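In practice, a research group might receive sequence data for several interacting partners and want a quick structural hypothesis before committing to experiments. The following worked case mirrors that situation: the sequences arrive first, and a predicted assembly follows.
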Amino acid sequence: MPLVMPAPEPEIMSQRHLIVERLSKILPSANLIVDETARRAYECDAFTMYRALPLVVALPQTIKQVQEIMALAADMNVKVVPRGAGTSLSGGSMPLEDGILLGMAKFDKILEIDYENRCMRVQPGVRNQAISQAVDARGFYYAPDPSSQIACSIGGNVAENAGGVHCLKYGLTTNNILGLEVVLIGGEIVRLGGSHLDSEAYDLLGLMTGAEGLLGIITEVTVRILQKPSIARCLLLGFSSVSEGALFVSSVISRGIIPGGMEMMDRKTIHAVERFQSCGYPLDAESVVIVELDGAQIEVDYLVGVVRRLGQEFGATTTKISTSETERLLLWAGRKNAFPAVNSIAPDYLCMDGAIPRSRLADVLESMNELANRYDLSVANVFHAGDGNLHPLILYDASKPGDIERAENLGFDILRLCVSVGGVLTGEHGVGVEKRDLMGEVFSQSDLDQQMRVKCAFDPGGRLNPGKVFPTLHRCAEFGMMHVSSSGSRFSDIPRF
Amino acid sequence: MEISHDTIDIRDPSEAIDAIKTAASLNQSLAIEGAGTKQQLGRYRHASQTLSLKRYAGVTLYEPEELVMSARAGTTVREIEALLERNNQHLAFEPINYNYLLGVNEDLCTIGGVIAVNASGPRRIKTGAARDHLLGFYAINGLGECVKSGGRVMKNVTGFDLSKLICGSYGTLALITDVTLKVMPKPETEQTLLLRNLSEHSGLVQLRRASASPYDVSAYAMIPAGMMQSSKDHITALRIEGPEISVMSRTKDLLSYLDDSGAEFETLASGSSSSFWKKIKDAQPIAKYSGQIWRLSVAPSAGFEIVQLLKGFDLPLQGYFYDWAGGLIWLAIEPTGDAHESRIRAAVNQKGGHATLIRAGREVRSAIDVFHPQEAPLAALSKRIKEAFDPDHVLERGRMRAGF
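A structural hypothesis for the assembly, expressed as tokens:
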């Protein structure tokens, strides 16, 4: 199923010089990337399978510049694709050949640290990790920790509703932000929320989070910061089958324990990790589960005991328990290295992101292996076990003809499998372009129409990040959302794909 | 109940679809309710008919080990809580019950209503609001179409998060038929640390200090003297929850951390702690006053100053107290035709936040904005969102904003 993007509009392409000229009146030359070689650096994000050369890259630094760019885009009917640090795994910020790529990386200031209200106001280009670092000395941190946290920006985190390994206990981005400042497609500024908890009648803050840049340009984020737990300890447990590991995970939660993190890996990943950089994972296990418990020392010590006993009860063949910070980090090292480790056993891998009801894990893994055999490919699995978010890594070799297509088709089948057991296409990576054409597997046409009408409420011309999330691009007029004059539609040229 | 017209019991979503389509074709507006316990919330509005979901009830899925539960909108919260209780689980957002404030029967309150008003209690500051626990829903929009969003898994970024929009939309976007919620383990035990003999201001300062400590406090309230039955002085209260061994240890640590505050300390053990927070959750300290009730959501550090501003305006306050470490103010005030709206909003606007009128007669709720007014671009956007779900303004016309 090759990806089809909206065909570049010839009239926009032909006016490129004019668009660039008008942009150069808004932005200093250092903030405008026009040259083709330099633009190449922006032709994809971390989803590298598909690329497109952006029309021009604009890197505004002030809200006024963002407003002026949006006004220019409205005036010339140009599409706009917002981009944070470009770490999206689903192509959320993949450029359009006839669109302005609006890079927000220069919005990189921490505006205010408000310890009293336990929040911070930051610009969207601030890196996720930099937020925690800024308040670390006072014992605070920002909870969502996507694996790209060194590089990814908070604006992108909001757009994708980024998760991480600590979501089950501490929530996703949406549960950890209090406010947003957004520039709408028409250039108006709206402020949503603030440093208070419950706000707008319609929760637009919640809606904007995870909207993948289709609704507005985020220019400021107010995040909640939390006091770091006094201590964290880790257990690593090996099991002789995947289902035993899964039952153990359920038993922890049934016991009323919500661990700070609970991760699972299958045999293939365990072996890849041990070969990459040994950290003592049991090679005889079919699955390993890492459980991290955090909080007050006395509570953590007590819960470590409870979890250890549950492990024994559920047949753990190996149990390791950290007694120091060094040991804790060592137990995590294999999990943190899982992706590069898998890369060392196969030239390429495709990382999927389905979420499933955890009770279906063993069945899903079995069916997944059958599917992989059918495609003559293999799959390694890393799993945020606590919250049911599965990351099957499909191993392939891009240099072999047909391998990319087979890997992609296997990926689609795996996601269909996730949906068929009550799961969804994406737990944390976003739909983007990658899973766009599978939306119909989850949603009915009226579900999708409802979402598209919401999109139209923000962006009636469909100029903000088109081609992402929705499999079919409709004109808002079709939903009765826009008055179309008798002289004909402005959007008669919008392609269907 | 303040709407005098037909109420239709919906027994199946298809009946709601028919009713909505019919109303749309006649340019009529429909009110939506579960058991009707929240009819007095929001602007007063006229509707041709009320669709009641109370007969569309029942838990349809509950997997305790997956922390997930689905229920039809008319299922009572009481039934859900009893079911969860049997598995040592609960709705962590502690839905407020309006029985004390509005004189309604709490036994009837439905889960659909809780979601429609985003009802959350003291633990909101730690574990989030109702909106943070809604994993997915089915609803009928104003076009009479069945729409769903989200799902039953904990982590899901597949498509727009319409669950957030629906939660707290007071039925104005769609008629919710089914909800799926994240349920959480109930803490093994709890204790409350009371700080007495502090001024209102320093009580609030201590709450914020506690909120910056690592002792994982789950609720923070400050009740001025005279608001809680027997109390002649201000009460500052902090709740600690978890396994027994941890609760004991953290309470002890918190006590020594706050020792320099000059407070006299008192500890409420599990039973009295939970009945204390039930009173806070349901706004009992001010429910007894006869006046109008406002609910102010502000930055915790602004709570005290806003109350001072209101006192400076010489407003006839009957009573008030703070939850969420000062970030939530419940206010009872002598009734007037405008509920003192302009001065209350002015005080809130100075510091940032929102004021919602919770209790007032229907004339007042027809005349003034019940929800905080929005600036023009946001107000226009809200209207467009309403129309994205309900272009003909069939559902709860006028309940949130006069214009739609």
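Before designing any experiment, note the following. Residues 157 and 263 of chain B are 47 Å apart (CA to CA). Residues 189-281 of chain B form a domain with the Alpha-Beta Plaits fold (CATH 3.30.70.2190).
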